[in-house]
Structures are given as structure tokens and as C-alpha cells.
Predict the 3D structure of the following.
Amino acid sequence: MSMKILALDTSHTRGSVSISADGEVLCEILFDASDTHSATLMPAIDRCFAMSKLSPKEIALIGVVIGPGSFTGLRIGLATAKAFAASLKCPVVPVTSLETLAAAFPFSTKLIVPLIDARRREVYGAVYSTASGFPEQIVEPFAARPENLAQVIESSGPHSSYLFCGTGAMKYRELITHVGLRDIVFANARWAVPSASIVAMLAGSKQELTYEELCAIEPLYIRPPDARIPKEKGG
């Protein structure tokens, strides 16, 4: 019986859903979630099942991006993954948006630096080697100002060349070219946001969390979210 994986990414204003079987992508849908993920995610999932001609009961594993990224988007995606897992009694694999971005460049001779626009003139980032075909973390996820990237990126030691990708790399490209790093290149806009089909690939290669461990999965924010719950008067 083939391993069928449902994968979700709601970390950006462009979300994606995919269903794969034994590494083959049966369907992937990208959707605009700039309004709200709550209004777009479930219709995309339903359409993905219809196009792949599968039912939810056939899913054996769920991969979901846990962050960093959109505060509300991450919570909606994770809640949806948990709901499916609870209904289907199937395991879940959490994947970060940063490693998903890096995984789009397997067997690279350059280190991959995914950067996500974090607003407040900051980026979320990390550094990976994909020489083996899968992302291997060199520098752990961080939040930093673009002008300080060289110091953070080379905290594990200087390296010869880097490939930058992600919304943060696109937004601050001009500034990044002058921070003092050697031999850098930039991926194009196609690879600026994570792909659910890549989430599925990573999920299939990672240790599963069991149904009982679902409650332990939380969004990865790196820094406190911008959203705040207003205090009650007199509190």
C-alpha cells in the first residue's frame, strides 16, 4: 500500500496544499490567502482531494508547516492539520518554513540561506547545507536586521558561497549584496514561498509524531508575534 501524504503550508499570504503518494505529487494547489487562510484553506484541501481522486481516509501522514511566518496563518494551518489527524487517527510531521524553502535546492554546492520577511525591518532566517539532497541545519533559525546578516550567517564560520531565497531575500536584495558576504546569488520569485509538495517530501523523511503527541505541536514564531490581546480596562 502506498504512503499517501497530505501537506499544508499557511505560513505566507500565498498558501499551498498537496497530496502525494510514494513521492509522486498527485495534486498541488497554490492559493491566495492575503484575505484570510480560514476562507481559502479548506476549499483548497477539498479541491485537492477531488483532483487526486482520493478520500481523506486514504491519507496515512500529514505534513504541516509550523513557522516561522504569519501568526494567524500558522495557527489556522496547524489547527487544520490537528483536526484531520484527530479524525483520521494518523501521525503528523511538523516542518519549518525555512527548511522547506531550502529543500527546493537539493545537492547545491552553495549554502542555502532562506529569509522570510518578518516586518519591523527584520527577517527570519537560517542556514542549511543541501549537499546530501536534504536540508542540514548549519545555523539555527534567527530573527535579524538585514544589515546584520553577515555576522549571524557566518556565526558557524565563514563559507565560500551562498544562495539566498525567500520573501526576505527578495525584499532586501540590494542591501544584502553589501553586507560583506562573498559569492552570493539569489533565487527567483518562484521560490520565494514554501511549496506544500516539498513539505510532503520532507515529512516523508522525518520521524513522525504520534496521534497522542498532537497537543505538543506549537507554531514556531522565533520572536513574539505582532498581534496582542488587548488588556481589559482596570487590568
Q: What stands out?
A: The chain has two domains: 4-97+194-216, 105-186. The domain at 4-97+194-216 is CATH 3.30.420.40 (Nucleotidyltransferase; domain 5). Helices lie at 37-52, 71-88, 97-102, 149-153, 167-171, 173-176, 196-203. Confidence is low (pLDDT under 50) at residues 227-235.
